[in-house]
Amino acid sequence: IADLQEELQNCKQCDSTVSQYYTCLKVLWKELSIYRTIMVCTCSTPCNCGLIYNIIDYAVYIYKA
User: Fold this and answer.
1) Cα–Cα distance, 64 to 28 (Å, whole number)
2) Which residues have a Cβ under 8 Å from the Cβ of 32 and sit 6 or more positions away?
3) Closest by CA position to 6, among listed 26, 38, 30, 32
4) pLDDT, tens digit, 9 for 90 and up, residues 28-52
5) Helix 18-35 / helix 2-10 crossing angle, nearest 10 deg
6) Own/partner pairs for 31-39, CB < 8 Å, 24+ apart?
7) Residue 8: which domain range?
8) Looking at the 3D structure of the chain, how many domains does it have?
9) Angle CA 17–20–24, to nearest 5
10) What phi and psi values does residue 35 have, to the nearest 5 degrees?
11) What residues have CB less than 8 Å from 61, skipping those under 6 apart?
12) What is the 3-state secondary structure (H, E, C) of the chain?
């Protein structure tokens, strides 16, 4: 997992087209998602376990990469 995260951090567009760069990112995201645990909130509404914040933090992390 750490290797995949490092690849994402080091991924640069350089001479690639936007399409090629995006495809490379998608492949890495998909591969990384295989290793992520699927988390399920079992709280009643509203959520009080904090899972929603973990999901949001992860989404922000991925989109900043």
Assistant:
1) 14
2) 1, 4, 5, 8
3) 32
4) 888 888 887 777 888 877 878 888 8
5) 160
6) 31/4, 32/1, 32/4, 32/5, 32/8, 35/1, 35/4
7) 2-64
8) 1
9) 140
10) -90, -10
11) none
12) CHHHHHHHHHCCCCCCCHHHHHHHHHHHHHHHHHHCCCCCCCCCCCCCCCHHHHHHHHHHHHHHC
Both tokens assigned to 57: 């933090």
Structure tokens at 25: 């990112």
Predicted structure pTM score: 0.52
Q: Report in angstroms the alpha-carbon separations of 3 from 15, 35, 50.
A: 23, 12, 27
Q: Tokens 């495809």 map to which residue?
A: 23
Across all residues in the chain, what is the average pLDDT?
83
Tokens 């290793």 belong to residue:
35
